[in-house]
């Protein structure tokens, strides 16, 4: 089993992986923001149904959505309090929030892998729409 985790990744563990992510998440403005995912280094390049790159894409999209939601709540809270900066209350630097704003989240991923992830996402969405998804 240990060898399988090295080859296929420990992300496939399911609920245990979800608990691990939640334990490392940060509560920002009432939103639980997961840590920024790291690129997988264990893809076997054999077209697995649950490829580590698909899971990475899902994790990055979740991280970006939660980060955006937390940022919006922070801005709303700051606006209602009249604070000039997030730094005023020790909440961190605004530059950390804008780090990935308006930038392709997958810009550092090789183009072939990006296209693979895009295609797999489109296929997954099509299967969901058609009701042909298997769990």
Describe the fold and architecture:
The protein contains 5 helices and 2 strands, in the order ααββααα. The protein has helices spanning 2-8, 15-24, 52-81, 94-97, 111-130, and strands spanning 26-28, 31-33. A hairpin with a 2-residue loop joins strand 1 (26-28) and strand 2 (31-33). The radius of gyration is 18 Å and the shape is elongated.
Concise structural overview:
With 135 residues, this protein is mostly helical. Helices cover 53% and strands 4% of the residues.
The percent range for helix content is 40-55%
Q: In DSSP terms, counting alpha (H) and pi (I) runs of 4 or more, how many helices?
A: 5
Number of strands: 2
Strand fraction equals under 5%
C-alpha-based Rg, rounded: 18 Å
Mean of residue pLDDT values: 77
| Strand line-up of the largest beta sheet | 1-2
Largest sheet: 2 strands, antiparallel
Bulk shape: elongated
